[in-house]
Design brief:
2 domains; 16% strand; disordered C terminus; Aconitase, domain 3
């Protein structure tokens, strides 16, 4: 069993009790909620005559169902309007902070919590959304939960959970120009499989991970769940601390120094014991595109759709299903595959650095004729910062639509949907059948820069051929950060 890892340390600090059957009652330091998985949970509380145990540790936003073209209330979709109104009512009744539309803090739940400084090292973070693993980028243990568990956290600020094994994923070396964190995680899932992480927490480590920005680390941890892991995390370091400092919920003054000292102590030590370890060479990774119906069915942009004879026997049935659904023959080059719709956004790749990477490709170019391409910022803050840099105008000049913040076409619980057999080049996280709103729609996952490259050519393209200067957009200057105004929310 693992020992001395960040996962073990955080788990032990949050253990409340050992329960019959072997599970642990675990305290939850930060609970994030949204409009989709919380209504039933609040209704269950009411039926049981219970309140919210620690409303100050729960933070709400609206993201999944909001339209991205016009967010004027009431929404045209009456069900979406009802869901938002229900969330507003529940938050008001129980004293929960809601970052609603127009607040300047609304956005995808896994985008706003980090940018507000709510996500911090050493926390346990839970949310009724599978991609809660995003927050592990900060050295937290973060996991998605179901509606009944949302109820449990609201009522008790704790969960019954079984401890996971820990696999260290060591990535050494440097990513090539034009290769991003999205390519890295798709590469990892390709080789370990969509079920390879079942029963594990993934610790991402190595020189490549150390060199990633916080937003890149969030992309990596966001999709750990797609590899079967319940959570993924990166040990906190100077990059982590620099990102958090000065944000609204970051510690201040002496409390900041104390927090950094404590956060530093949480990292897996040199004597840490892992249940498993896997190594990757970052320099061998190419821009990666999924060709099938799971995130594990990915290939380098210069490769062809795999043939059954190259696969393990257990992989062939899902591959045969993917060939039929995607209408792709084994051995087909992915490069040059025509695409109909191009989506840049989601909790995986809707942050400012993602938009900059795509803008570096779109600058001075035009989207191909007859296609639909749109950009959806991950939050109101991302949108404001992007507008301040002129990215909205750059995209619009290139022929992209610039939208309002929301989850958009990632899961299509809003008007942004594929139609019929359309193929989407998407910077989101899942390419399941029907995921983007059409029962027969097809999704190719790739990085935002790769989506932009495909949009300006009309087909899957190698972004490396279009990137004359990969560093066109630098990191955000410190003065664009929000000013700290609130105390830390520590576990």
């Amino acid at each position: 069993m693992s020992a001395g890892t960040l996962y073990d340390k955080v788990w032990d600090m949050h253990r409340v009790a050992e329960l019959p059957g072997g599970s642990t009652q675990l305290f939850i330091g930060l609970h994030l909620i949204h409009e989709v998985t919380s209504p039933q949970a609040f209704a269950a509380l009411k039926e049981l005559g219970l309140g919210v145990r620690h409303p100050e540790r729960t933070v709400a936003t609206v993201d999944h169902i909001v339209p991205t073209t016009s967010q004027v209330r009431p929404f045209a979709d009456s069900l979406a309007e009802e869901m938002l109104s229900t969330l507003e009512g529940n938050c008001a009744e129980h004293g929960i902070t809601l970052h609603g539309l127009g607040s300047g803090r609304q956005g995808i739940v896994h985008v706003i919590a980090p940018e507000l400084g709510l996500s911090q090292p050493g926390m346990t973070v839970a949310c009724g959304d599978s991609h809660t693993s995003t927050h592990g980028a900060f050295g937290a243990i973060a996991f998605g939960i179901g509606t009944s568990q949302v109820r449990d956290v609201l009522a008790s600020q704790s969960l019954a959970m079984n401890k996971l094994k820990v696999r260290r994923i060591l990535v050494e070396g440097h990513l090539q120009p034009g290769v991003f964190a999205k390519d890295l995680i798709l590469h990892v899932i390709r080789h370990l499989g969509v079920k390879g992480g079942v029963g594990y927490a993934y610790e991402f480590a190595g020189s490549c991970i150390d060199a990633l920005s916080m937003e890149e680390r969030m992309t990596l941890c966001n999709m750990a769940i797609e590899g079967g892991a319940r959570c993924g995390y990166v040990n906190p370091d100077a990059t982590t601390f620099a990102y958090i400092k000065g944000r609204p919920f970051a510690p201040e003054g002496m409390a900041w120094d104390q927090a950094v000292a404590w956060w530093s102590s949480l990292a897996s030590g040199p004597d840490a014991v892992f249940d498993d370890e896997v190594r990757f060479d970052a320099g061998t990774i190419a821009p990666t595109v999924t060709w099938g119906i799971t995130p594990g069915q990915g290939i380098g942009v210069d490769e062809t759709v795999p043939i059954p004879e190259q696969m393990a026997a257990e992989e062939r049935p899902i591959a045969e299903e993917a060939y039929r659904y995607m209408d792709l023959a084994p051995g087909t080059p992915i490069l040059g595959l025509p695409v109909d719709v191009y989506f840049i956004g989601s909790c995986t790749n809707g942050r400012l650095s993602d938009l900059r990477a795509a803008a570096a490709v779109a600058r001075g170019r035009q989207v191909a004729a007859g296609i639909k391409a749109f950009v959806v910022p991950g939050s109101e803050q991302v949108a404001a910062l992007a507008r301040a840099e002129g990215l909205d105008r750059l995209f619009q000049d290139a022929g992209f639509e610039w939208r309002e913040p929301g989850c958009s076409m990632c899961l299509a619980m809003n008007p942004d949907r594929l139609e019929g057999r359309q193929i989407s080049a998407s910077s989101s996280n899942r390419n399941f059948k029907g995921r983007q709103g059409s029962a027969s729609g097809r999704t190719l996952l790739m990085s935002p820069a790769m989506v932009a490259a495909a949009a300006v050519t009309g087909h899957v393209s190698d972004v490396r051929e279009l990137l004359e200067n990969p560093c066109t957009f630098a990191s955000a200057p410190a003065e664009t950060r929000p000013v700290a105004t609130s105390p830390s929310l520590l576990p």
